[in-house]
């Protein structure tokens, strides 16, 4: 009696980094959080930052809080997939945890801006899946920013002015979701994850499995 070959045993999968970008208020952070709640096999990329930790934040969960000298060493050692300075503080995406997860067949999600996505694209190439989140209208975007009640009118105006330039980069992304309905947008993002996991190039050992399958 011949041995039964299970696809689960015969085929391994290479993981990927899922990047969600959007103008502030369009939904990338909410969709990222909900994806992680829905799919426990997804993990969140934890960035490093030189800014002080807020009382509600946990080191290693919200960010890895490091000093400027450590950050500079990571940049010099090519240990960051992308990095930027925002309001005087440095932020970056550590390379090693993501490389390790991808090689192990795990998928990682992060929400970074278009500039960070461009930097990551230069390093990861085929291991990168990019999604741009658009608001249904500028009026809806402004309404969401005001509903959050986190920013002053001046800051909302600044974010709105910046959003138009940010949205001009949508053609650089593999997928685009118009976030008119949050639940529908989350379902679309999950569908992208499912489809990307089934891509032929990511299914390692598939050719050998099919050869055995055809040979009985």
Explain what this protein looks like in three dimensions.
44% of the residues lie in helices and 21% in strands. With 216 residues, it is α/β, with parallel strands linked by helices. It has one domain: P-loop containing nucleotide triphosphate hydrolases (Rossmann fold, 3-Layer(aba) Sandwich), CATH 3.40.50. β6 (80-86) and β7 form a beta hairpin. It is globular and about 70 Å long. The relative contact order is 0.22.
Layout of secondary structure:
Elements: H1 7-10, E1 12-13, E2 17-21, H2 28-38, E3 42-44, E4 48-49, E5 64-65, H3 68-76, E6 80-86, E7 89-94, H4 95-103, E8 107-111, H5 114-124, E9 128-134, H6 138-148, H7 153-167, E10 175-178, H8 182-197, E11 203-204, H9 206-214
Parallel strand pairs: 2-8, 2-9, 3-8, 4-5, 9-10
Antiparallel strand pairs: 1-11, 4-7, 6-7
Please mark out the parts with pLDDT under 50 across 5 or more consecutive residues, or reply none: none
Structural class: alpha/beta
**CATH homologous superfamily caption:** P-loop containing nucleotide triphosphate hydrolases
* Share of helix, binned: 40-55%
Write the CATH architecture name.
Answer: 3-Layer(aba) Sandwich
Distance between the termini: 12 Å
Query: What is the spatial order of strands in the main beta sheet?
Result: 3-8-2-9-10
N-to-C series of helices and strands: HEEHEEEHEEHEHEHHEHEH
Global shape: globular
Report Rg: 20 Å
Please give the CATH class.
Alpha Beta
Quote the beta fraction.
Answer: 15-25%
Average pLDDT: 91
Summarize the main sheet: 5 strands, parallel
Number of strands: 11
**CATH fold type:** Rossmann fold
């Amino acid at each position: 009696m011949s041995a039964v070959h299970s696809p689960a045993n015969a085929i391994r999968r290479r993981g990927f980094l899922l990047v969600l970008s959007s103008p502030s208020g369009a939904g990338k952070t909410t969709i990222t959080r909900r994806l992680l709640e829905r799919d426990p096999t997804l993990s969140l990329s934890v960035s490093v930052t030189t800014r002080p930790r807020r009382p509600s934040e946990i080191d290693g969960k919200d960010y890895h809080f490091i000093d400027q000298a450590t950050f500079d060493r990571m940049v010099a050692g090519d240990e960051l997939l992308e990095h930027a300075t925002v309001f005087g503080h440095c932020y970056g995406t550590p390379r090693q945890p993501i490389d390790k997860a991808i090689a192990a067949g795990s998928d990682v999600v992060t929400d970074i801006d278009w500039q960070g996505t461009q930097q990551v694209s230069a390093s990861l190439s085929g291991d990168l899946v990019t999604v741009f989140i658009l608001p249904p209208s500028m009026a809806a975007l402004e309404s969401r920013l005001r509903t959050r009640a986190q920013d002053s009118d001046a800051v909302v105006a600044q974010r709105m002015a910046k959003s138009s330039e940010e949205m001009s980069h949508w053609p650089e992304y593999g997928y685009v979701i118009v976030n008119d309905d949050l639940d529908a947008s989350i379902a679309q993002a999950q569908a992208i994850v499912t489809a990307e996991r089934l891509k032929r190039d990511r299914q390692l050992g598939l050719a050998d499995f099919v050869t055995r399958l055809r040979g009985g």
